[in-house]
Fold this protein.
Amino acid sequence: MKFNEMKYKRINLEEIVPQIEGLLEELSQQKSAEDFYRVFLKEQEIEKKIDTMASLASIRHTINTKDEFYEKENDFWDETSPQLQAYMTRLARIVLDFPQRSELEKLIPETYFLSAEFALKTFDEKIIPLLQQENKLASEYGKLKAGAQIEFDGKTYNLSSISPLVQSKDRDVRRRAYDARIGFYQKNEAEFDRIYDELVKVRTQIARELGYQTYTELAYYRMQRFDYNQEMVANYRRQVLEDIVPLTREIYKRQAERLHLDKLRYYDLGFEFESGNATPKGTSDDLVKAAVNMYHQMSPQTGEFIYVMYENELWDLLSKDGKEMGGYCTSIPEYGVPFIFSNFNGTSGDVDVLTHEAGHAFQFYSSRHIPVLSGQWPTMESAEIDSMSMEFFAYPWMKDFFKEDTQKYYYSHFTGTLTFLPYGVLVDHFQHEVYNHPEMSIEERKATWRKLEKMYCPDKDYEGCELLEKGCWWYQQGHIFESPFYYIDYTLAQVCALQFWVKAHRNQPNYFNDYMHLVSLGGTKTFTKLFREAKLRVPFEDGCLKQIAADAKEYIESFDNNSF
Ligand SMILES: [Zn+2]
């Protein structure tokens, strides 16, 4: 069915709540695992209906925020969802308390149990006021940034509109625009410091109220890290430092040579080619056509998937008046289909939508048959494996999107995945230090950032920029304020995707079948188990990054640096 024909109707709470309550009651009376599961699935069907309507309302609201009908519906869902969440929590308790748990575990994915247990470990009614305080502080950070007014050469910009100038070909413009942007952070240094300091304190208090020593411990539960811990992550960061950082130094060296600069300064790092970045060629329709063609050639399964997406118009790709910013992929469970939302803007980001977001969509499409809803989507770090790997699988078709810029695209995309790894683990390491030592002063935190930054990103030369030299780069990284500890996830997934790249690059057999197997599992297995199912090495294990680094170095050196 086409997206526009999918009928939206607000759910009737007076009808649905008694139904759920009835099923919860029925569940608590079941004796055998089979009977329990049968009733459980009935409840899942109701959840499916609810999720479908919530999803339709949300998608249509983001496509046109000026549509009054869906604005009201969106408000309805904002109010109703927490209410319904309370029933899901009750359901989780009933599942956990079922006496024949081991029998039930054969029917319901283990991740459902783990996630229910973790939800209980991270919540208690007594922390509600602290959670509200945490949310308020995180919103203050967002508001502070959203209100930025940056004066530059007689015009006023915000943090997003100044971006093209920060990447200007003219080095002087680039430097001044960068400094103007940093000027906003410098002007608000005390405010960023206050917000973060209060966030660290309130999060530490939440953790202590729940009986944990540090917020870090609680964060691992909050992030649903089912099967890895702080020590394993530390071992992974060490490998990034040893195997990847030397490679990024070479990447920056090549960049300086290419740009004919003695030394890359902080405002040069994001500027890769004198001739400009790789851009997709043709209209948005051309790009969509190229994507449809690519997925048909890639495999029968991706072909079927893109056929369903295209025929049913399960995406809204172009920017338009009233549309929300950004991009996402979501699902419409009753129809068993995903939906992709984006704002094409003529940059290589448009192609990322058709590879990365389509990777998420393909994963959902491949696991849509899983009857337990929470098993249809993986946890955060696992979900990114599916999308980031698709970016690499799409490599052989990139010439259809980038034409004469194809080599430049490969180089930029590939080296970008590598330079991201040390930065990503820096963000993670910093947060471990901060939350494991909540007594640190504001100034000590900044010094810690700068110390770690020199270790992981030694090419960041801030001479002449007082704020960055002091250790305040992280003010710009929203996750640190808004989603603590959510960051290393992207790098872990990237390491998985890079392993798929190695296999594809070396033409190894069966890797695509392994990927197909991975996406079909959705979120029914934990992170490290998914890795093993996909026949990949877990990033925490010694030696995992060595092979990637060796192959990556060879690949990077195969590009003629003077040809861009
Ligand atoms: Zn993603």
Observations:
- The pocket of zinc ion is lined by residues 356, 360, 384, 387 (CB under 6 Å).
